[in-house]
Specification:
Blueprint lengths: L2 H19 L2 E2 L1 H15 L8 H7 L1 E7 L2 E9 L2 E8 L4 E4 L1
Antiparallel strand pairs: 1-2, 2-3, 3-4, 4-5
């Protein structure tokens, strides 16, 4: 398993921890946490991954273990909702 995939997996589990304190997270919290993980792991390429791009389009995140829901706004007037189960790393798009 690549370092980037491991960082992504760790990040999703970290979302559950953050969501236990605050179930609705703003985008800057996600990017700050991803940046912290990238620095701690020495893997800066995670900040340029597709996953990081997905997080940059997030308007908010709702955490209700074991699921995480992202409200994405890729462009004006367009919304996309992504829900995944962290422990199973399954992805669904609404």
């Amino acid at each position: 398993m690549s370092t980037t995939v491991c960082c992504h997996a760790f990040f999703t589990f970290r979302l559950l921890d953050l969501g236990a304190e605050h179930p609705i997270l703003l985008p800057h919290v996600l990017l700050d946490e991803l940046n912290r993980i990238a620095k701690n792991s020495g893997n800066d390429e995670i900040m340029y991954s597709s996953f990081a791009t997905l997080l940059r389009t997030a308007v908010e995140v709702v955490v209700k273990a074991p699921c995480v829901a992202l409200a994405l706004r890729p462009k004006a007037g367009s919304w996309l909702y992504v829900v995944f189960q962290v422990r199973l790393l399954m992805l669904g798009v609404c």
